[in-house]
Amino acid sequence: MKVTFKGISKQYKGKFALQDFSAEMDNGIYGLLGTNGAGKTTLINIFVGILKSDKGQILINDVDARSLGVNFLSQIGYLPQFPQFYKNFEVLEFLKYMSVLKEIPKPQGEKRAKELLEIVNLTGAAGKKIGALSGGMRQRVGIAQAMLNDPAILILDEPTAGLDPQERIRFRNLITKFSEKRIVLLATHIVSDIEFIANQVILLKDGRLLKQDTPHALVDGLAGKVWKVTASEDTLDEKLHRLKISNMLREQEEIHLRVINDEKPDIRAVNVQANLEDVFLYYFGEGEQW
Ligand SMILES: Nc1ncnc2c1ncn2[C@@H]1O[C@H](COP(=O)(O)OP(=O)(O)OP(=O)(O)O)[C@@H](O)[C@H]1O
Question: Do both 198 and 252 map to the same domain?
Answer without folding.
Answer: no
